[in-house]
Every structure is written in C-alpha cells, then in structure tokens.
Request: fold
Amino acid sequence: MSKKKNSSDQKQSTTVVVDGIYDAKSLGVPKVTMLGLQHMFAMFGATILVPMLTGLDVSTTLLCAGLGTLLFHLLTKRKVPAFLGSSFAFLPGYFAIAPNGEKELLPYACVGVACAGLLYLLLAGLIKVFGSGKVMKFFPPIVTGPIIIAIGLTLSQSAIDSCSTNWQIALVAIALIVACNIWGKGMVRIVPIIMGVIGSYLVAVVTGQVDFTEVIDAAWVGLPIHFERTAFWAFKDGNTSLLITSIITIVPIALATIVEHIGDISAISSTVGKNFIKDPGLHRTLLGDGLATSLAALFGAPANTTYGENTGVLTLTKVFDPLVIRLAAWFAILFSFCPKFAAIIGSMPSATVGGVSLVLYGMISAVGVRNVVEAKCDFSKSRNVIIAALILVLSIGIKYSAAGAIVIPAGSITINLSGLAVGALVGILLNAVLPGKDYVFQED
Reply:
C-alpha cells in the first residue's frame, strides 16, 4: 500500500492507493466531484441519443437514468459500480410502434418496454430459485448473438435516411467518432460519441443549418415529466390492439438485452476484480436493471441498461468506488430540470444524429458477431446453422417486407408481430427442441 499527499487541498489529506487502485473516500470532495462529472459525460452522448432518435423527452431520459442508477445501487447493496443509461437495443421496438416519433404513439411503445422490464424480474426470480445455470441454458449465444446482429441491421435504414439529409455533416460526425475511438487519448477515447456530436453540431451551426428559436424560447427551469408522454396516458387512451401489439413486439427484445446485461456485469467484475455475478448476485443486478427499465418506461423514458462507457472510465481512473457513479446519477438528475438544455439537444440536425447512429447501429451488430465468436459457437452443427439462419432471415425479412410485420387478426383486435419478435421466439423454441445442445452458463 502506498500513500500520496494531495497538496491541492487547503487541508492536507492522504490519498490511499492499494495495488494501483484509488480509494475514493481519501481523494477529497473536489476530486470525487470531478470523477462524478467525468462519469456523467461518459454516459451522456449515448444516453441522450436514444430520445433524439425516437422522439422521447431528453429531460425525462436524464431524470430516469439518474433515478434508475440510484435504484440499481440500492438493490445491489451499493456494491456494483454501474451506471444505467439508455438502451439502443429497444430502438426497433420504438420504431415499430412510432415509426416517425409520433408523440401520441410513443406512450404505447413505453408500455411494451415496461413489460420487457418485468421479464428481467421474472428471470431474476427464476435464477434465485433454480440457479443461473438452469435458467440461462435457454438463452445461449447461438440464439442471442443473431438477435443482436439483427437488431443493428434492422436499424440501418433509419441511419442512412438521416444521413441523407446532409451527408457532409454526417461524415464529420462519423470521422470524429472513428478518429477519437482509434487515436484518441485519455477521456477523448472514452467519449467519442460526444466528440462526434459536438464537432458535427458546431459545423452545422457555422454553416447556418441550426435553428435556435426553440432554444431561445425554452425556460431555464422546468419539470422533466409530462403526463401525455408517459405510459399512463396510453392506458387512459385505451387502444387495446396497439397495447397488445406493443407488448408482443417489444418484450422479446429483452432476451438480447438480458445477455447484454450479463456481459456488462462480467466486464465490470473483471475490471474491478470482484465477482458481482456471485455477490451481490446475478438475480440482484437483473432485478435492479429490470425495475429501473420498467419505471423509466412508465414515465416516458427509454429502457435502461448498464453502460460499457462507464466501465471504460473505471479502467482509466482506477477508482472503483460506486460512490462516484451515484454522484454522476445526481448530476444527471440535476440536468434534467433544465428545459433549455433539452432544447439545445433538440435543435441538433438530423444528419448529425444520422452519422452517430450509423456507427452505433453497426457496432450493435458487431457486438452480436463478437458474442457468437467469443462463445465459439460450432457452425459445423446443422442445428446451430438452422437456428441462426432463421433468426436472421425472419427478423430482417419481415422488417423489410411490404407490411413490415406479421398481422394477426384476433376478433376486434389486430396484433402485429415484428420481425425481431418472430425471430427471437422461433430461435428460443428451436434451441429448446432441437437435439445437440452444448452450451453451459458459467458464473466465473
């Protein structure tokens, strides 16, 4: 153990370093505050991008990201240094229900996301009762990998459409993200999305392509939750067909995000050097993530997920105390009460959003490929080839068909099954019934 003197403080304090890892409590208030801000900026670009793409409210998103993170920490005994930000995996679900971000349809999509969060709770209960191995055998990489690949590919058209509004602006965002991610140093490499957004936005401002009218009119302080944009409004509106369609379309996406959650918790465990899947337990982390997602969706915010960006900051700073993550959550809550800030985000050109989303959607598919490769899925087995093939073809083919979904009339109610929903359900069913299963979930 070594000790470092912190000469910048008026009162001399002792910074404790154990095996290269800093003790946050010994750093002092100014440094801990800066660490919290750093974590907030790390999650910021990706978190606000989801409402920008879907039409959800930026202020509500920040509020629920902060509150969801604090809830997650409470349920995981304050042991896991994870931040919960907006999940990109649910974007196809939002677009299936509200293709153009229609404000009157988004609350129905939020109902579907809230129900998807309940799937986390169900799985957490099953893991608590039966153990993780018996439950996770139904979600092997040969199922979840192709689902994640399909999520990115089904989103590709919307990214290209946004880029097409101004390819020059979009290319600036893409170039900055790639450059910062490959050649950036320190925090620049941790926040390439923010760098891409800011750089592209500034070019758009200089070239006169941004309208600041709404920014000027927006108030400095305001409430971040609006009833007409919450899931409660959908229940009041009462379109039963749309409610059922939303639930059936969006809930299966949680099968992929649950695997994403396990991967993120594993990455955090590896970074910190503690096995959080065993202590506080996978059932607790799933409970925290799922409950945070359901509550966020009910109040009109995107689904939550554990953020890899913040894991990168943990690696960079060597400060693993969950306290700094909770501080970032409080900063997010504070920003959510500033409508003028949300208006600045809303004034961003669609080409900037398109450039950023083009990279991110491709990365989602790449994560699916990595999932399959790292799990060493054996494609010499016909069962695995069939499962992956049907998931991909059904998910993408139905998405780009004339109807865009499978329409099922049920009396006075019409149910629309998205390609992802059909692909996920078929993949899980085939994996369960076809012989030759060889996947074993490990807690290590």
